[in-house]
Amino acid sequence: MYYFFLLLIILVLALFVIGSRSFRLLQLKKRQDELVDKYRKEHEMSDNEIEIFKSVMAESKQLILDIEANFLIHEDLRKNRLFKDALQSSKAIFLLLMASPKELTDFGDFLYKSLPLMDKSVQHYVSIEESGIYTVRVKEEKKAIFEVLKKICTNIVKDYEDYTTRKSDEAELSKVILEKESGF
Questions:
Q1: Were both Cys, which of 100, 125, 156, 174 would link to 86 (CB 3.0–4.6 Å)?
Q2: pLDDT one-digit tens code per residue, 175-184
Q3: Domain extent at residue 104
Q4: What does R_g of the chain's alpha carbons equal in angstroms?
Q5: pTM for the full model?
């Protein structure tokens, strides 16, 4: 009889724990849905656009994290200033897109070409580096990939520079228009 009551108490406690966790998860899901809805309304996005945006940004985030992890491990990548600038530009573009999803179309080449190609090139470079094989042909291949990486990094940095220049020009134009309208 004692074991029956003990088993009953354990069962009630287990149900209570499971129920409270389920309730917390339900509350968290509700809060997440509210935030997504608020974000969608703020940025005037349809449900379909939100799903595409989430997918693209999740993939981009993972690519940036993978590239950064490889940069941190391999000294010749980590020490190259252009590579550092490209990684920082990638992060800046990512944050910019999270704040302004409508800018997604301005960075199509970055999202669909440069970033995935950079990740693949870095992975290939790292695999060669980690193979420990240093024949003439392998060294040439490694050098060729390094050059490709330089070009990709240059494009990423240029994309970010072009964007900041465009925004600066827009701000300057707005300033000129305001000055003309106010008679300064």
A1: 156
A2: 666 667 776 5
A3: 58-182
A4: 25
A5: 0.73
